[in-house]
Each structure stands twice: as structure tokens, then as C-alpha cells.
Input
Amino acid sequence: MLIRHPEPIPEREVTDASIFLRRRQFLQNAAVGAAVLTAGGPFLAGCTDAQEPPARGPKLPGVKAGPPALATDETPTAYHDATAYNNFYEFGTDKGDPARYAGSLRTEPWSVTVEGEVAKPGVVPLEEILRPHPLEERIYRLRCVEAWSMVIPWVGFPLGDLLKRFEPTSNARYVAFETLHDPEQMPGQKRRVLDWPYREGLRMDEAMHPLAILAVGMYGEALPNQNGAPLRLVVPWKYGFKSIKSIVKIRLQREQPYTSWNDQAPREYGFHANVNPEVDHPRWSQKRERRIGDYRKRPTLPFNGYGEQVASLYAGMDLRVLF
Ligand code: MTE
Output
């Protein structure tokens, strides 16, 4: 049986978003944890054919619409699909595993280490990370390298705005990110599927681009654990594996960072990993994609349809090499 939150929580109207998020996360963890105990319930089936909708939580307060020029007007993917069909190998490699098992992730307290080429490094509690940043809704396409896609209404803020607070030095050419490494909370890390922790990276100019955000929510609500709570990257013009979940470390550095999938299979997963229908994956075509919830495949767009905004970042460079 599903546990549903009583709503509305009256305090949300008067509570700072960061405090609200922490409490919300606590409630959510309790609900997912309880759901794990009743394994077999429809929310946990991990398929797109569940009979009942998943439990929904209260809305995040104070979320404004993001810049219209950065949004898509495509219909968002069904909430159930976006939260039950996931890649989060720290909880298993089946698409339904993250929804089944991510209840063991404790997202509170949470802090993020910011280090390397910055004037003001620190270990920063999540509330401090979030405090100055107004939350925006950004409706983005998400294109996985596996040739499926979704449209997700994220809630977050520009990554660049966060990085500026730590005062990057002139040596900061790349940003490296790390997910939590704790096999007790993330049982998938007990198997050497990847060289844990999951790591990703961006060039500094990519990280400062207004399309790149850190998300704390989706569909107006706090991020479910399986989607990368409490803080994940979203870089919509790149394949989904760049959008690293449950971030605990951000390091600015001079050298191109080590990244998990690029290290695991460099011929299959590039560092840049810009969505490119002209460059096939060695084992499948990237020309088309299946939008989750749709029957027919659709053409994949260069830079996942964000070329107008980001193509200039790669001017004069060979886009094949950039994979
Ligand atoms: N981040 C971590 N830490 N671990 C992962 O396995 N999978 C990536 C990315 N971020 C992954 C991750 C992949 S391959 C994709 S397609 C997206 O998360 C999927 O995000 P979603 O499950 O919210 O749709």
C-alpha cells in the first residue's frame, strides 16, 4: 500500500525553500523507505505499466518560471515514467532499481565540498548552497545515450551562479563532479559496475552556460531519490550520463577531469558527449530516439535541439572528436 503525504503542509507558504526542501526530503525518504518494505507495490514495479499513480508530495515554494527562451513547449513526460524508469547504477542496473532501492539514500544532512582552483573553497551545507539562489522551473528535453528521451520540468538554478560564489581562479578550466560514495546507502556500489564514485565533468565555459543547471526538484516537487536527490546536474544538450546525480563534490581544475563512463569505455562515451545524431554509438544508431510514453521513434536533434544556444561553444571544432 502506498503512503501518501498529508497536504498541503501549511508551513510551506512561509518557509525558506532550503529548509522546506530538507523537511520534504525527510518525508519523502520515509515514504520511499516504507514503500520498499511493501515491495511489489505498483510504484515499485519499476515499469511503465503501473496501475496506480505514485505518491506525490507537496509543491516546492517560490518557484518562478525560467527564461522562456530556454524552455521547450513539448509535453512533459508522465511523472510516473520519469520517476520509475531511471539510470542510477548506485542502486542497480535495471531501470526500475532506483525507484525500488533509492529509499536507503539519506539526503539529510547533506553537504558539498567545493575545492581546487577557487579563492573560497569549503565544505558547504546544502542549505547554504541553496540559500541565495531563486528556484526556477526549466522544462528541458533529456536524451539518454541509450536512445530514449523524456521532457522533464526541472526545478533548480544556474550552475554558473553557484560557481561564481566560490571565485574561480584563472586556472579553472574544468569542473569535476562526484556523487556520494557509500555502499551501505548505495548498495549498487558493492558491485564494481563502475569505478565508484560516479564522476563527471564539464569545461568551464560549458558550466557557466545559462542552460546548465543544478536541480533540486522536478514537477514542482523536491527531487525523488531515484532522480538524484538532493542535488544533481542537468546539462540538456549533452547525453544524460553527463547529468550526474546526488553530488557531494565540485572541484575546479586546470586539467580535463577523469569521468566514469569515458574511463570505462572511451570509444563509446566521450568526455564532451554532446547529443549528435551524426555520430553513432559503436553499437547502435543515434539518429532516432524513443520518447518515453510515445510509440513511434522521432529524429534526434543536434545538441538535443539546443544548438542555437550552445553550438558557438564548439565553433571550429570537429564535432566527431568532441564525442
Ligand atoms: N548519476 C549517477 N550518480 N549515477 C548514474 O548511474 N546515470 C546517468 C545520469 N546520472 C547516473 C547518473 C544517466 S546514464 C542518465 S540517462 C541520467 O542520469 C538519467 O537521469 P534520470 O534517471 O533522472 O532520468
